[in-house]
Specification:
Largest sheet: 4 strands, antiparallel
CATH topology of the largest domain: Jelly Rolls
Distance between the termini: 49 Å
Number of strands: 10
Structural class: alpha+beta
Number of helices: 10
CATH superfamily of the largest domain: Jelly Rolls
Length: about 220
């Protein structure tokens, strides 16, 4: 599906680099872009698949995950409107297949720029700077994730995650485990321990924070 006038305006508002492109490159990109309406929970790319193009997000969000042979998944980062995907950029630059999975968190509207157009865009200083800035931002995020996983214990990471979600969380133990790259049984055991210490109160798909100061001490 091609871009409508409204979608074109939203796309260039979210991604000013496209508006800054010189003609006829800008018009060619917008004419070739494909609009995709993707339901929540859809795998938009997976490990081993070739990259079909460079994605822009108009609405929704994509969670990018690294899967292990055991089935466990480690969330790497989220891509929101106005952002783009480091893994996709790397695959296009290296002409390689995906090595991670991307799943829509909610109903999403994506705009896909064909891979051959991406190669042409790299000749544009504006777009090249946009891609390299993306690499810098995402690499900083990934280094923080490596530090979290390598140097902080799971109970610290869980306490920190809970503190970032408000006073009352409406979520499941499995969802928290997915965010932490762990398993439900471990998270449930830790939450039970938190409850016994009076840090939280557990309910059905609900966690109430009783002692945020205690959680902060644990997270530190």
């Amino acid at each position: 599906m091609s871009l409508t006038a409204e979608q074109t305006q939203r796309l260039t508002d979210l991604y000013p680099v496209l508006a800054a492109l010189a003609e006829p490159l800008r018009s060619q990109c917008l004419a070739e872009a494909l609009v995709m309406q993707v339901p929540a929970g859809t795998t938009v790319f997976d490990g081993g698949q070739p990259c079909q193009g460079f994605p822009f997000i108009l609405d929704g969000a994509i969670r990018v995950l690294k899967a292990a042979p055991s089935g466990r998944e480690l969330p790497l980062y989220r891509v929101l409107p106005g952002e783009s995907c480091l893994i996709s950029s790397g695959c296009l630059l290296g002409h390689s297949n995906y090595n991670a999975r991307g799943v829509t968190e909610s109903d999403s509207t994506l705009v896909l720029l064909p891979s051959q157009r991406f190669d042409a865009l790299l000749a544009s200083p504006e777009f090249r700077q946009f891609v390299f800035a993306l690499f810098g931002e995402r690499m900083a995020d990934l280094m923080q994730l490596v530090e979290e996983v390598a140097f902080r214990k799971l109970d610290q990471r869980l306490a920190n995650l809970l503190l970032g979600k408000g006073h009352t969380l409406h979520t499941t133990h499995q969802a928290l485990a997915d965010e932490l790259g762990s398993v439900r049984e471990m998270v449930s055991r830790l939450l039970k321990g938190f409850a016994e210490q009076g840090l939280v109160k557990l309910g059905r798909e609900q966690i109430e924070i009783l002692d945020p100061a205690g959680l902060r001490r644990l997270a530190a």
